Here is the input.
Amino acid sequence: MTPRGPEISRVLITGATGFVGGHVVAAARAVPGLRLRLMTHRTALPPSAGADAGPRPGTGGGGGVETVYGDLGAPDTLRGSCEGVDAVIHCASAIGSSEPTARSVNDQGTRALVEEAVRCGVPRIVQLSTASVYGRGPFTRLRPGGAEPAPESVTSRTRAAAERHVLAAGGVVVRPHIVYGTGDRWAVPGLVALLARLCAVPAGCVARHSMIEAGELGRALLGAALSPEGPAGVYHVNHPEPVSCSRLLATVVDELRLPWAAEGIDVAKARVRLADAPYALHHLGMLAVDHWFADDRVGRDFGWEPGEGFTAAFARHAPWYRQHLESVRRSAPGR
Here is the structure.
């Protein structure tokens, strides 16, 4: 019989102002009676993340929300952050940073946070990680335990190191693949940049990709923290239906009204066109092979049900993406 976990009444969320962390906060605020402690290393949280008045760190907040200052790169600031909480949802990480910063924040900072949680007797630790820790594909219906991590980038290597600290403490590690939605400044904008470099859309690409809308991921992370089932170990959290590369590209091009739909290019020719752009070539290589991660335990263990599929969900976020991309275009040098 699966051991049932403790009743959770207060949750600490790190990275509360970040992309996924903000969606976790939104999901948590909808749970009656759940008290939140939001960790930030910034001078203030936006009103939408904390209490209605947007309290400053260290002052606490109304409506069952308080904020605390904590910097993963400065472990001493984490002291006391986990006192009195029943679960930690760890969403903070350094992405695209230098190796010293990534190691300080992702690896050493997570270790310090886990040690503080253990010292305070926190029974549930949930970490947001990434399927990128597996390295290059193809991966087809890959389940947890089906492959050893083989991270390639500094970010992925240090996030894999962070996982080890959480798992050693009996925590939950959540590995999504492509996360999209309002606040995404990496996945879809990176895909748009690739298409702009090609000035065309790769055609005939049948690779399949696991994807999850950020709000759904936020609900899953919260579900892992609140679940009475006592989950532990690694989980792949994505929408159960993978998205073909062709449908992914067509949806993004159509919904964002990109100008490159008129020209199609096969993947082999696209590689030639990107020969002088190693970064773009790397992303094309990832896009052109399966990255499909499966896990049928998530619904049962987290009490989570997936929402609508990619095409419908992306359409809801398209206005935000169009606004964000236009803002980036206007702020580009030379504009």
